[in-house]
Give the backbone structure.
Amino acid sequence: MSQHPLAELRRYDSEAIAQYHRNRPWLAIWRFLTIIWFFAGFFFSLKLDQWLNQVERYQEKRATKLRHILTDLGPTFIKVGQALSTRPDLVKQHFLDELIKLQDQLPAFDNAIALAIIEQQLDRDIADIYQEISPQPVAAASLGQVYKARLHSGEEVAVKVQRPNLRPTITLDLYLMRWAAKWLSPWLPLNLGHDLTLIVDEFGIKLFEEMDYLNEGRNAEKFATNFRDDFTVKVPSIYWRYSSARVLTLEWIHGYKLTDTAALKAAGLDTDAMTRIGVISGLKQLLEHGFFHADPHPGNLFATPDGRMAYIDFGMMDQLDQNTKETIAGSVVHLINQDYFDLASDFVKLGFLTADTDIRPIIPALETVLGNVIGESVGNFNFKTITDQFSELMYDYPFRVPAKFALIIRSLVTQEGLALSINPNFKIVEIGYPYVARRLLTGETPEMRRRLLEVLFKDGRFQWERLENMIAIARSDGNFDLLPTAQLGLQYFMSTEGQFLRRQLLLALTEDDRLHTAEVQRLWDLVKDDLQPVRLFNAAWGTLAEFSAIAAFGNQK
């Protein structure tokens, strides 16, 4: 049997895919009609239930039907269902219960085919590779299925095997999605324009990367390197000798699904603590490492018995450049400061607004939408709320969703949805803001120190209240030790880089022709419990000793 022409396509190529299907229009037409037929029948059933006042009677049946439809339509639609399964605020509970099954309860493909793929890909017999392997897959996902095995050296491993004929199915769906995006864009009320096709292309690129298991292995090792000093995150090791483009052998993770709160509690694990680890690790990925997991649904995240968060799937990842990371951090700063002009400028830099956009009329709208985020309703802030409010802005202003940010938004809302499924009262701001405040106050890099100065100074004047608020926010979760921050601040203050700060702080203490002793007293009252004299003296002495050593080294040179 001859191989499908697209089966060996290693990288997403929209033109190559389009050229193949343009010459075979019957394939696209048949697939399009199949999709329409499945969903037309489903939506007609929902409408019929409403007309006959029997929605509650058949709701479980309809939810099961939707799961079967997405499963039958294949991996592209399964991934849509997986994303929806993490949004309890968007999807009704009976549908949610069924969509969650798409995370790891999908039908497996034939066992004999899977074992044959392993032997063909690794070029050796199963018995030569593994001491033992489970007779059936322990889990099946959208792109493959997983076996539990043991190497001859004794290690327990997970063996991922890719589904057969995967690329032909996915490329056809991507072709139809791109075609639909192109034709639907002018009819949509949002100002997305041609970016819809770019979003499909970005999705296609990531799907092709996810289908390359060698790429997934490299992603896992890069992710592990980023979190090597974070003992709350666990990443499985990769066994390269037993891996290929379609087979991946990796360390077996013993753990519990994050959504199985009963199992977590039975194991003595704190669900709120696991939620906190998930949110903080997600923020670290975006704001520190720039390398983030774009598909953090519950099937990919586990709680280990020792209280760590384990990530097990690294197929869909993305990388942010340094400038984008800094701009995102800057936008958070401007949001905290309620500097809507600068925030609008950040949207231009990030591509949400074009460079020729007049941002002046947008500023009042941003203030209306975001004004309460830092105000009294800060505890009610979540990405669902802000996304809904921004969708209203997009009707009236030329906001667009850059292709790069489609995955970021997906990652954020998925993580928030997962947290909401664990704790319905979860507020991302309660964890996110203290983290951002700590990052700014710690200021490990020149970029973060520059952002901190943006927070503390406005129009050349020192903002005493902002510093008080940031310290209070950073300490709100009880895990923030101010002393290391004070030591770093002292180092920065005494460095050449801190010359501007020394000058500005002196002016701040004496501005308006008075000594700001009251402000200094409030700050001291806020931090005095953390900065006990002995600890403060030791930190200051260590800083002076370090600078003396640096100066001595400089003189020797």
Notes: The mean pLDDT is 78. DSSP finds 24 helices and 13 strands in the chain. The radius of gyration is 27 Å. The first strand starts at residue 130 and ends at 133.
